[in-house]
Amino acid sequence: MKFQGAVIKEQRVTFVVVIVKKHILDRNTEADKTLRMFQPIFPGIPIVLMAQDFRGVPTYYGRRDIYQFMANIPIQCVPWKEYTLS
């Protein structure tokens, strides 16, 4: 499985942003399930999911303080990386 994500360290907080499809964020149960799926990959690190609409506008799901912070960061400034899990 391949996915795009970013490990970010800001103001002494380390967290992960993972890109997902928009439909995952449309239902809280699906978003929560996806967060749990990524937790073993980044143990002990808070995870926020991010999806973009058809215009490229991001929406975030996860810890409130983190997604509020990310809402003020231009998407092109995020250090995205492709991860591969076997």
Number of domains: 1
Q: Report the major sheet.
A: 5 strands, mixed
Structural class: alpha+beta
Low-pLDDT stretches: none
Q: What's the β-strand tally? A: 5
Task: State the separation between the terminal residues, measured CA to CA.
Answer: 6 Å
User: Please, what is the average pLDDT?
Assistant: 94
Oligomer: single chain
Q: Order of SSEs, N→C?
A: EEHHEEHE
What does this structure look like?
This protein is of the alpha+beta class and 86 residues long. It has one domain (2-84): Trna Endonuclease, Chain: A, domain 1. The chain is built from three helices and five strands. The protein has a five-stranded mixed β-sheet with strand order 4-3-2-1-5, with helices on both faces. A hairpin with a 5-residue loop joins β3 and β4.
Short description:
With 86 residues, the protein is of the alpha+beta class.
Question: Which descriptors apply to this entry?
Answer:
Trna Endonuclease, Chain: A, domain 1; five-stranded mixed β-sheet; 26% helix; alpha+beta; 36% strand; 86 residues; globular
Secondary structure elements and pairings:
Layout: E1 2-10, E2 13-19, H1 22-25, H2 28-38, E3 47-52, E4 58-62, H3 64-70, E5 81-84
Parallel strand pairs: 2-3
Antiparallel strand pairs: 1-2, 1-5, 3-4
